[in-house]
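Re: that backbone. Tokens:
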């Protein structure tokens, strides 16, 4: 497991973010982080766009002050992903706002999704 301070570059969908991570010694890395234990609907599914919008609003409300407003704990994703089309390993992780609530984004998204049982889960 690795821990980095980071900033948001892009919200890919309701459970995946593109982050710029400060890995130390003036080195930056751009990585896609899939929220650990979160299965949001895909963008093409019912609730997918809504979940991505909700994630954007949560991040905007909780990450306004610092240059590096996000704290991310990552680990290598060892799950078999037969539909994954990338040629590199993506990371799964836990995301929280440095100065925000104690709740992680992961837990907040899961709470949001629990209020919408009509939406199907996305894929891993």
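Recovered sequence:
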């Amino acid at each position: 497991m690795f821990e980095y301070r980071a900033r948001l570059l892009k919200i890919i969908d309701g459970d995946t973010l593109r982050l710029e991570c400060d890995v130390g010694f003036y080195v930056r890395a751009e990585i896609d982080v899939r929220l650990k234990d979160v299965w949001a609907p895909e963008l093409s599914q019912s609730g997918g766009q809504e979940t991505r919008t909700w994630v954007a609003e949560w991040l905007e409300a909780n990450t306004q002050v610092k240059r590096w407003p996000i704290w991310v704990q990552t680990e290598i994703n060892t799950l078999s992903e037969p539909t994954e089309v990338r040629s590199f390993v993506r990371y799964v992780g836990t995301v929280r706002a440095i100065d925000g609530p104690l709740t992680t984004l992961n837990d907040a998204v899961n709470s949001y999704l629990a209020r919408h049982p009509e939406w199907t889960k996305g894929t891993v």
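DSSP finds two helices and five strands in the chain. Residues 49 and 81 are 23 Å apart (CA to CA).
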